[in-house]
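This part of the workshop introduces the protein records we will be handling. Getting from the letters to the tokens is the skill we practise here. An example says more than a description, so a record of this kind follows:
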Amino acid sequence: MSNPSESDDLDKDSTTSPETSSEPDETQLMPKKGTGQTEGTAEADMVLGDFRLLRRLGKGGMAEVWLAEQVSLKRNVALKLLKSDLTEDETYVARFQTEAKAAAGLNHSNIVQVYTVGERNGQYFIAQEYVQGQTLKGFIQKKGPLELNLALLIMRQVASAIQAAGERGIVHRDIKPENIMLNRKGEAKVADFGLAQLQGGERLNLTQEGVTMGTPLYMSPEQVSGKPLDQRSDIYSFGITCYHMLVGRPPFEGENAVSVAVKHLHETPEPLESLRSDLPGALCKVINRMTAKNPEDRYENAQAVLNDIRKIAKSLKTGESVDHLIDAGTQGSGPFPVKRPALVLPLLCLIVTLCSAGMGMLLKKSTPPRNPDALETSVPDEGTAKQQYLSAMFEVNNEDAFKAVIKYYQTDKVWTPMAHEQLALMYLGDSTRHDEARQQLDIMKKFERTDLKTDLKTKARIGEAYLYALNDDMTLARNLLFRNSEDIQKYISSGSSWKQREEDTRAMIGPTENKQ
């Protein structure tokens, strides 16, 4: 998969010099021999300066994204090509070039790196780091709401990226799951500074279109209203992304972009605490503060967000209290103050037009198919239990990858129990492996770590009830769910795989059997 997420937002700007190709004669988009394709039409094997196109990864409203080889350095890159029908529009060209400028100098491990920007024979392009993996959106679609430790890991990295951009006066303007890339090592990288706004420096006159561009599902109230933006707007969008990551859906949904944007202005999300009672109260309050309607009620910068996320992650290991974080934030649930409401509706309508141009391309994961004959011992040791587990998660349903966590890190008290949990889910879904599922469920009930024990035991009880119901022992299934109903409500999040198993079990029991 590549880095740029997709939307019709492309405004990065790079002080990297234009192409310094060692092949000065290859300065045009060259057609593949014998294809008869016309000049300027992107096709595999065409050459654009120092870059040879390999295959198209996706497209958005403004650009196509190609996997390409940078010939001089013999490396793969993601190449963004501005669509030919937009090259005559100076505004679009300016937006495209600004993408490279905004990303210039952002040499950060959690930001997709821009290598160069150029133009050949009227074809504008940006060469960026090629990230093999998947978007956060795709990962959530596969996994559902993320478990706490994994969510905190991603949150720390994205907050770090937003802070790094903020230190250079850059507002991303389109933080969302589609623009967060995840690789197999568990690294998160923020991509597509396509709507980036440079504060205090070069400002482009991009007309009203440049004011409201963004994705309504994650757009801050001030961005919806067309007001000036600073890093707190990115913090809001990041908070909405965190909500999506932990719940499995964004807080506001609607029939169209206008209805969603209005909700960002006036409605309060369903409390995170009521949807994920297993989450620390401090984390819920941090996200509430990030998504406050009024920018003054949010964190001042992403560094402050990062500091609190780190404190919460540390508290999970040490038991240290983070109650002071709960008192520090404000919900900010009141409607966003709109001084000139008559102007808001036209701006919202403009959002609909912009969204029709393409709200994002979900790039496909480029992991090769798993060898069915692969042995557990073929999975390499990644160095730490955490890294081993993250690698397994990003493989998606690779049994040997989770077994490797258990094999290499038997005494680990955090990541190894979660590997057993993933194996249990995998076996529960295979009718031929229910005996193995029972073994994993028994193991889950025995872990002694305080902050995991009740959670894992509750999940194990759901798994046992599910197996009882499959064997037509409805009385045992019903009683098991009834005895654990309080813990299920407390620890099992809506939309999770375990919640689905519970619902499947209740469906098998039937309405009469469910009555107490």
Remarks:
- The longest strand covers residues 51-59.
- The longest helix spans residues 450-470.
- Residues 1-40, 199-213, 329-333, 356-376 have pLDDT under 50 and may be disordered.
